[in-house]
Amino acid sequence: MIDDAGAGVPGLRVLAASRLSDPDPRSTLTVAAAQLGGRWLDVGARMKRLAEAAHVAASAGAQVLAFPETYLSGYPFWLTRTHGANFEDVAQKQCYAYYLDSAIEVGGPEQRELEALATDLGLTLYVGVTERGRGPASGSTYCTLLAIKPGDGLVGHHRKLVPTYDERLVWAQGDGNGLRTHTVGAARVGGLNCWENWMPQARHALYADGEQVHFGTWPGASSVSADITRFTAQEGRVFAISASGILTMDDVPDDFPLFDELHANSSPMPFDGGSGIAAPDGTWLVEPVKGEEGLIVADLDLRAVAQARLTFDPTGHYSRPDVFGVTVDRTRREAVAFTDSSTSEAISE
Predict the structure, then answer these.
(1) pTM score, two decimals?
(2) Residue 5 has what pLDDT?
(3) pLDDT for 348
(4) Other C-beta atoms within 10 Å of 349: how many?
(5) Disulfide: which of 69, 132, 160, 275 matches 103 by Cβ 3.0-4.6 Å?
């Protein structure tokens, strides 16, 4: 294997890599994960950093690049540090309004920028975003993972099934619509957000949809992502990549409503990354990298997936459909569905 760590553009580089000396394009997928920070809740600043990372990934030969959970435009980490569950607290309401204003809408200008970037670079993007709902749900946010392919645009729109613990204070529940894999090069690729990677049914749904490469997105702490990354790889006989974020308190804008309390109750680096890449046998191709912004890159020999499934194929020869039944509802669930009779009259104001 060839180590090309250090390659890239000024200001952002490849931190660690696992490269094949003679990759076969018919059975190889080159992947990257961006371990990034940037000004918290500033969509413009983070879009710029995202584009820089995409150019580094493309120059390293990556075909698909994943970003951390809710990278656009930031994880709601104030909740655990400022008594986020205080009912009817004025400051918490102000924080939520600030957060809601930083969220992006699917179909909005940020999505169009991402689609143009993917097409220009020939690079598939998996991007964690804070999504603002539309219509009846415009006052709610979702933890969302977008999959964007060159030329095809948005092909995946997965909302986190169950927000974890205090995340439920600000994120609405998602649905099964995004539990899908997508063809990228020679592989079927899928992804989940943070702790839903611990959900057996969610992982099973992606395995059953042909997944060979799995992205897990995280706000940034190897203490919660390392074990499940290796486990997912070994359970699914897939390559598993954790894309984890970096956050320093210097990135927090001073006009955030609970700025002083947040600083008083936080370490200088609340999220320290931990991005890594595991092989189908559960061993590390790229061990978790912490404390620094940059990218990790690997050439994945997809033949390793088939080889690993000789002894265990979780949705194939090692499944028992006669004993266990699994149904995945992939219907998009909207907050409200209006039904009008054909005879009802529309009243305009």
Answers:
(1) 0.93
(2) 46
(3) 52
(4) 2
(5) 132
143 catalytic? Reply is no
Active-site entry in 69, 115, 167, 235: 69
pLDDT at 339: 87
Does 223 sit behind a cis peptide bond, omega within 30 degrees of 0 on the bond before it?
no
Phi and psi (nearest 5°) for 108?
-85, -170
From the candidates 110, 149, 160, 290, which is the catalytic residue?
Answer: 160
Indicate the domain borders of the chain.
8-308
Active site residue 194: yes
Question: Residue 302: which of 212, 184, 215 has the closest Cα?
Answer: 212
Strands 124-132, 12-18: pairing kind? unpaired
48 is catalytic: no
Record the tokens describing residue 248, joined without a space: 């320093």
Per DSSP, 171 falls in state: B
Which of helix, strand or coil describes residue 137?
helix
| pLDDT for 347 | 54
Cα(135)–Cα(138) distance, integer angstroms: 5
Spatial CA neighbour of 46 closest among 16, 69, 17, 64:
69
Find tokens 């074990």 and name the residue. Answer: 227
Name beta bridge partners: 278. 240, 284
Amino acid at 242: S
Strands (E) across the chain are located at 8-9, 12-18, 28-35, 64-66, 124-132, 141-149, 153-159, 182-184, 187-193, 213-218, 239-244, 246-247, 271-278, 284-290, 294-301
pLDDT mean values, one per 10 residues, the chain (349 residues): 44 96 96 98 98 98 99 98 96 98 98 99 99 94 99 98 98 97 98 98 98 98 93 99 98 97 96 98 98 98 98 96 94 86 60
Q: Domain 8-308: which CATH class?
A: alpha beta
Q: Distance from CA of residue 214 to its chain's centroid?
A: 10
pLDDT for res 343: 62
The three-point CA angle 257-263-267 to 5° equals 145
The whole-angstrom separation of Cα 321 and Cα 316 is: 9
* Contact between 304 and 279 (Cβ < 8 Å): yes
Q: Other C-beta atoms within 10 Å of 261: how many?
A: 15
Choosing from 143, 167, 194, 290, the catalytic residue is 194
The residue count for the chain: 349
